[in-house]
């Protein structure tokens, strides 16, 4: 029972009591699912290692402050003064006086949107106390003396995790919106939430597989990844998809897209409105896309060289057979772009000129200024990952998915915890988050090579990386390069991509798009959300380049197509997939993309 909408809800004691029993029952089910791996002798050692690393890192920060009595007093004064001010302002408010808040949340912070966070003195105190404490922790990390850059970055990362997890908005008794909702529903929201929690722990086989969208609303090949085409080649690592033409003539030079294997390729073919692949086909490109296998223990020894030879080289051979064209334009996204750059350096060293131009989408080749993922990379952490991979032959897809979520916990973790398990509401259908949760595994040899040679030792940009007996030198890559960065990218930062431009030996057109790693790339012309900047090659520093660059409204896609077309404008009659020397093996999007992690 409730009164009018804006009045305080009145709980039904009998219903509350009944739902309390159901909550306990579902919570018990979740505990049983969580304990199942322990009973089977498979404890979550990765979690223990992560906690140990966090304690060690934050302990190092604490040492810098508290071994010196003067620094310890300074640290206590930083927070003590603000809490005294908060106590004083709260007492004034309770006496009816108007006061200026000691700490205000960021206007974009949706956690404290409910009016009670400001109107109710108690919840306002809780909110401001949380903000004071978390900002104090950030200051301690910023101003700790003698920390190396990597330890400081890790400490900031762990502070973000803790502050995100301990936000009062995450707990029933300290969130006014949750209290109101629970009383209104007599706890039925918590019953639904505990049921979803139990289901998600069971789905994760003892680990929480946080649902961010409604998976029942999406199906690959039906309302996602549904641009028409055919699989025209398959081996142990790839299926190669050739897409059906939509124009009478096409550019003579085909386009080969190398997507990341960390995620599935259909980020570039989400649906008809958001498909870079479909749009490229509509412009008159013969588009081929590599769909990587979702590897298992059989692929444990597949390394970077394997991905080059059985991936890109095999695809080049297949494109030649399918179209009769020896030369292609190639495009690589994220780590797929890094592999493409490695391949181009290898081809330059061995006299292979089959790739005539390269497009890199949010791709790093110089990892000096690598993004937030670098906090996971040091010798100790890599050894831990390698030990875990050795047991299975691969890194479980959920580990990478969790790592990406942890980079933005207040966007990708805690809103869903509150919505799902405390409000008891199923998440809304969202195609991008469905793709994000459709995780892939990574072969042990490949992932170890990538972490060590790129993130840890930055060998590619230094000319020290080797594949087989060939030393790779990006300065020998002289084909035209289109290098797209996105302004808010936290995985491949714009600065990192900018600096990587200098490694190539040929002309590089650096383009900066608005938004981040995904939305900045998937920005279709029909419904553009963001702008882009052009300014030619990377020169000076990034700030100078941006100040001199030209801003354009809308999508960068047409600008890119003009760049491609200008290099090889000749057209030929459209090519039908599966109609030539390579017969169709399956309709797009193929079989590899459907395999779950």
Automatic annotation (TrEMBL):
Work out whether the entry's keyword set contains Acyltransferase. Answer: yes
Domain Poly-beta-hydroxybutyrate polymerase N-terminal positions: 108-280
Check the record and name the Pfam families matching this protein.
Answer: PhaC_N
* Location in or out of the cell: Cytoplasm
UniProt region (Disordered), positions on chain: 572-597
Q: Which PANTHER family match?
A: POLY(3-HYDROXYALKANOATE) POLYMERASE SUBUNIT PHAC, POLY-3-HYDROXYBUTYRATE SYNTHASE
Write down what this protein is called: Poly(3-hydroxyalkanoate) polymerase subunit PhaC
Which source organism does the UniProt entry give?
Answer: Methylobacterium crusticola
Query: Which lineage is the organism of this entry classified under, starting from the top rank?
Result: Bacteria, Pseudomonadati, Pseudomonadota, Alphaproteobacteria, Hyphomicrobiales
């Amino acid at each position: 029972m409730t009164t009018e909408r804006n009045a305080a809800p009145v709980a039904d004691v009998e219903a509350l009591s009944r739902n309390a029993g159901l909550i306990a029952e579902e919570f018990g089910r979740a505990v049983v699912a969580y304990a199942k791996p322990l009973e089977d002798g498979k404890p979550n050692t990765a979690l223990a290692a992560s906690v140990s690393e966090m304690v060690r890192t934050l302990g190092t920060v604490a040492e810098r402050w508290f071994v010196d009595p003067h620094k310890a007093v300074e640290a206590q004064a930083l927070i003590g003064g603000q809490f005294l001010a908060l106590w004083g302002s709260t007492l004034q408010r309770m006496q009816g006086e108007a006061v200026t808040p000691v700490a205000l949340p960021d206007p974009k912070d949706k956690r404290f949107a409910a009016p009670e966070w400001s109107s109710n003195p108690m919840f306002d105190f809780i909110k401001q106390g949380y903000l004071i404490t978390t900002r104090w922790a950030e200051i301690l990390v910023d101003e700790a003396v003698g920390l190396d850059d990597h330890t400081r970055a890790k400490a900031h990362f762990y502070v973000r995790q803790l502050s995100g997890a301990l936000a009062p908005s995450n707990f029933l008794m300290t969130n006014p919106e949750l209290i109101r909702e629970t009383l209104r529903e007599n706890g039925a929201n918590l019953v639904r939430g505990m049921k979803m929690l139990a289901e998600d722990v069971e789905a994760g086989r003892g680990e929480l597989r946080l649902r961010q969208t409604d998976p029942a609303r999406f199906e690959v090949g039906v309302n996602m990844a549904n641009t028409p085409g055919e699989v025209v080649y398959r081996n142990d690592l790839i299926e190669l998809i050739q897409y059906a033409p939509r124009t009478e003539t096409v550019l003579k030079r085909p386009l080969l897209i190398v997507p990341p294997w960390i995620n599935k390729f259909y980020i570039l073919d989400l649906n008809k409105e958001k498909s870079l692949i479909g749009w490229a086909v509509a412009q008159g490109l013969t588009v081929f896309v590599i769909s990587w296998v979702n590897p298992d223990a059989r692929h444990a020894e597949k390394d970077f060289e394997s991905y080059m030879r059985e991936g890109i080289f095999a695809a080049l051979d297949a494109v030649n057979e399918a179209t009769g064209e020896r030369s292609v334009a190639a495009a690589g996204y994220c780590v797929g772009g890094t592999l493409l750059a490695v391949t181009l350096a290898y081809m330059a060293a061995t006299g292979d000129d089959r790739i005539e131009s390269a497009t890199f989408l949010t791709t790093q080749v110089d990892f000096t200024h690598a993004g937030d993922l670098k906090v996971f990379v040091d010798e100790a952490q890599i050894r831990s990952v390698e030990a875990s991979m050795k047991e299975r032959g691969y890194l479980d897809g959920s580990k990478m998915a969790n790592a990406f979520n942890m980079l933005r916990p207040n966007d990708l973790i805690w809103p869903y915890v509150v919505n799902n398990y405390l409000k008891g509401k199923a998440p809304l259908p969202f195609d991008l988050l469905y793709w994000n949760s459709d995780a892939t595994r990574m072969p042990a040899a490949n992932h170890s090579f990538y972490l060590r040679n790129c993130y840890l030792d930055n060998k590619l940009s230094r000319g020290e990386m080797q594949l087989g007996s060939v030393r790779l030198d990006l300065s020998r890559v002289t084909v035209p390069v289109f290098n797209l960065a996105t302004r808010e990218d936290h995985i491949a930062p714009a600065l990192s991509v900018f600096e990587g431009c200098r490694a190539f030996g040929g002309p590089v057109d650096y383009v900066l798009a608005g938004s981040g790693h995904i939305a900045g790339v998937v920005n279709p012309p029909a419904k553009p959300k963001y702008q882009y900047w052009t300014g030619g090659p990377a020169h000076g520093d990034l700030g100078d380049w941006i100040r001199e660059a030209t801003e354009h409204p809308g999508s960068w896609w047409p600008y890119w197509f003009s760049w491609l077309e200008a290099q090889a404008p000749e057209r030929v009659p459209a090519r039908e997939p599966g109609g030539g020397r390579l017969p169709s093996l399956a309709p797009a999007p193929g079989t590899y993309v459907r395999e779950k992690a």
